[in-house]
Write a structure and sequence with these properties.
The chain has helices spanning 14-19, 67-72, 74-77, 92-100, 113-121, 127-141, 157-161, 165-170, 175-186, 188-191, 193-197, 200-203, 211-221, 235-244, 250-257, 264-273; strands spanning 3-6, 30-31, 36-42, 45-54, 57-64, 143-144, 152-153. The strands form two sheets. A five-stranded antiparallel sheet has the order 1-5-4-3-2. The protein has a two-stranded antiparallel ribbon with strand order 6-7. The chain is of the alpha+beta class. The protein starts with a strand and ends in a 20-residue tail after the last helix. It catalyses: Hydrolysis of alkylated DNA, releasing 3-methyladenine, 3-methylguanine, 7-methylguanine and 7-methyladenine. It is an enzyme of class 3 (hydrolase). This is DNA-3-methyladenine glycosylase II. InterPro entries: Alkylbase_DNA_Glycosylase/TA, DNA_glycosylase, HhH-GPD_domain.
Length: 293
C-alpha cells in the first residue's frame, strides 16, 4: 500500500476543498468517516485514496493500480496549483468571506470522466433526483473499490454503454440525460485531454454538454477559477441578491462579476461558502422519480 506525507505551505481547509467532490448524502464513491475517502477511475485503473491530517501534515494512503497516480496528484488535489493569491475582492461581502476562509482553495483532480458523468446527471433536475441516480448507478454498476473501505468506483464508460433500457430506467434516469451520458461515454477516452488542455470547449463539442456542465467539470478537474456555472437555477439569483439585494438572471450576474475576470468562479465560491442565498418564498420543486413511469 503506497502512501505519501505532504505539508501544505498555505492555509488549507481540507474538508471544504475535498467536499466539493461529494455528490450528495450516501455518495458510494465518497466518505468522510475517519478522514476523507475517495474512490476513482484513473488512467491506470480503479483506485481508492484515503486522506487524513495531523497538525499541519497531510497523510495519504492509496489502493489499486492507480494508487501511485493519485498520490502524485495529491498537492494539486488539495489546491497547490491554485492561483488564489492573485484574487482581488472588489466587494466588501466577498472580501469578508475571503478573510474568514483563508484555507478555501480550488483543487484539481486531473480526471474528467467521473466528474462529467456526475455533472450530466445533475442537468436540469433537483439535487435530490441527481444524487439518487448517482447512488443507484454507482451501487449497481460501479466496481468495488480497492482497499478496506466499502466504496464503489464510479461506473466506467464501457460499463454504462452496456446497460439495457430497463436498467437505466430502474436507476431513475430520463431520456435526455441518458442520451447525453451515452454521447459522453462514447468519446470519454478523448475527453480526458480536456484537463491537460484546460479546455471547456473540448467538452462542449459533445451533444448535450453545455456551458453549465463544462463549468462544473472545469471547477473540479483543473481548478478553473473563472468557470461560472451559467444556467444554474440558483447561482445567478443568489449571487445577484448577495451583491445587490435583488435576485437577478445570468446576464446580471455576469455583469456584476466582470471585475473579477479571470477569477469569477472564485468570487461565486466565496459567496456560496458564506451561505449567502436569497430568501425563498415560492414552494420548492418536487423531485421526480422516473422509476415510477
Amino acid at each position: 500500500m503506497p502512501s505519501r506525507a505532504w505539508t501544505p505551505p498555505f492555509p488549507l481547509d481540507l474538508g471544504a476543498v475535498l467536499g466539493r467532490l461529494r455528490r450528495g448524502p450516501g455518495d458510494p464513491s465518497f466518505s468522510a468517516e475517519g478522514g476523507v475517502w475517495l474512490a476513482a477511475n484513473t488512467p491506470c485503473g480503479p483506485s481508492t485514496l484515503h486522506i487524513t491530517r495531523t497538525g499541519g501534515e497531510v497523510l495519504a494512503e492509496a489502493w489499486g493500480e492507480g494508487g501511485p497516480w493519485l498520490l502524485d496528484g495529491l498537492p494539486a488535489l488539495l489546491g497547490a496549483d491554485d492561483t488564489v493569491d492573485e484574487f482581488i475582492a472588489h466587494h466588501p461581502v466577498i472580501a469578508e468571506s475571503r478573510r474568514q476562509r483563508p484555507g478555501l482553495r480550488l483543487g484539481a483532480t486531473g480526471r474528467v470522466w467521473d466528474l462529467l458523468f456526475a455533472s450530466v446527471l445533475e442537468q436540469k433536475v433537483t439535487g435530490v433526483e441527481a444524487f439518487r441516480t448517482w447512488r443507484e448507478l454507482g451501487r449497481r454498476f460501479g466496481e468495488s473499490a480497492p482497499g478496506p473501505k466499502p466504496l464503489k468506483v464510479p461506473p466506467t464508460p464501457q460499463r454504462l454503454l452496456g446497460l439495457q433500457d430497463w436498467e437505466w430506467h430502474q436507476c431513475g434516469l430520463d431520456g435526455a440525460r441518458r442520451r447525453t451520458l451515452i454521447n459522453v461515454a462514447q468519446v470519454a477516452h478523448r475527453l480526458e485531454k480536456a484537463a491537460e488542455m484546460r479546455s471547456r470547449e473540448l467538452l462542449e463539442k459533445v451533444p448535450g454538454v453545455g456551458v453549465w456542465t463544462s463549468a462544473e467539470v472545469a471547477q473540479r478537474a483543473w481548478g478553473d477559477p473563472d468557470a461560472v456555472s451559467v444556467g444554474d437555477y440558483h447561482v445567478a439569483k443568489n449571487v445577484t441578491w448577495a451583491l445587490t439585494g435583488t435576485p437577478g438572471d445570468d446576464d446580471g450576474m455576469m455583469e456584476l462579476l466582470e471585475p473579477y475576470k479571470p477569477q469569477r468562479h472564485r468570487a461565486v465560491m466565496y459567496l456560496e461558502a458564506a451561505g449567502l442565498r436569497r430568501p425563498r418564498r415560492a414552494p420548492r420543486f418536487s423531485p421526480r422519480d422516473y422509476r415510477k413511469f
